[in-house]
Amino acid sequence: MKGFIKLLAAVIVIMAAAVVTVNTILITGKKGDESRPYRVEAERIVYEMEQGKEADLSEYKYITGIHTFDAGMTGESFYDVNNDYLVRVVNGKTYRFDYDRPGIDDDFGKLILIFNLCLAVFFIMVVGILLYIKYRIIKPFDRMNGLAKELAKGNLTAPIEAEKSKYYGDFIWGLNILRDKLEKGREKDLELKRNNKSLILSLSHDIKTPIGIIELNAKALERGLYDNDKEKKDRITGVIKEKCDEIKNYVDQIIKASKDDILDVEVKNGEFYLSEIMKSIESVYTDKMEMFKVDFTIEEYSDCLLKGDADRAVEVLQNLLENAIKYGDGREIQISFRREEESLLISVSNTGCTLDDTELPHIFDSFWRGSNAGTKTGSGLGLYICRQLMNRMNGDVFAVIDGDLMAVTAVFGMA
Question: Beta strands 93-99 and 295-298: pairing type?
């Protein structure tokens, strides 16, 4: 805000200086143009006097008086006057021509007035626009300046005041939605942690019983208590197997609980145009690929209507492109299109694939990272999220490897 006030003050000073400078130049220039008319008039009078004519001063605009240097006059009495004058010698006599300096005529004065009025209107408009920007855009935004930081800190109760400014209606609405989402997410996360903790405690307690039975029977077998009774030995072996299956079931429940609610996003299925999502992708990744020096191409396509959620479709393609950037060799990334029956296949391919074919079936599993991950950071959820989103949009996603080229394809239904 302080910077904007300085800018406003600077604009006012500059415009005021410009008005003064322009007026000075115009007036000075006009006077300069009219600085010699009295000389012209004086020369005309001198010429008439040389011709023996008597000058009629009523015919002249600037010459106001003619005086002769008579005998007995001193130079001081002849030249010491308050008026401006010229001295000319005519027919051997010295004359003093008094004159008025030319001023600005009425027409030019009106022009100057109109010009200044126009400058004043322009000046008021500029200052008005700047003040409008200050009070309707800068000041409301300044009040909201700390909201994003508060949300980032986890302060979800920070007040978001409604702004009358139409410029921030959607922004405030978006912040409120973000806060609600974060609040719900935090509540859901806490609930999930409580549930997981309760589940783990419960399963841990339940697992103790079959483990105790297995341990007891294992010791009996180890000591050979049932070596001479095959029937009891087989029964004990069956009990151990049964309890192992019970433990396996508990472990499966733990694994399932750990995978639940990884993806908690709303998918609004509808219809959208291919060009809609491709414009979003192109606007972001064209510059990004140039920065990374990657040969990025988007194959020509015919626009068509697709089924699903446009925002989630963009999210899927973004995940595929980020994977291509991260795990490719940076030489080439391409987006291509293919139609099959009632579906549109959008493929993101990259060079430099080092993933083994045997790992391909697992790339869409949650928390799974391939042997090509190396030291690259990641959670192993990108492709898992893509598959979940595509499933919720009644589509699919799959991957193929051809030499060092890897292509991941999202399958969208066509409307």
Answer: unpaired
* Residue ranges, CATH 1.10.287, the chain: 187-259
User: CA neighbours within 13 Å on the CB side: how many for 385?
Assistant: 20
Which of the following CATH numbers is that of domain 270-413: 3.90.650.10, 3.40.50.10190, 3.30.710.10, 3.30.565.10?
3.30.565.10
Residue 238 pLDDT? 83
Residue 107's pLDDT band (cuts 50, 70, 90): low
- Taking the alpha carbons of 339, 342, 345, 346 in that order, is the dihedral positive or negative? positive
The pTM for the full model equals 0.51
| Crossing angle (nearest 10°) for helices 310-327 and 382-392 | 150
What is the side-by-side strand order in the sheet with 295-298? 295-298, 332-340, 343-351, 405-413, 396-402
How many angstroms separate the CA atoms of 354 and 302, rounded?
33
Dihedral over Cα of 312, 314, 315, 317: its sign = positive
Q: In this structure, are strands 295-298 and 305-308 parallel, antiparallel, or unpaired?
A: unpaired
Q: Which fold has domain 187-259?
A: Helix Hairpins (1.10.287)
Which run of H or of E encompasses 397? strand 396-402
Is residue 408 within 8 Å of residue 399, measured between CB atoms? yes
The pLDDT tens digits of the residues spanning 59-92 come to 888 888 888 877 667 667 677 666 778 888 888 8
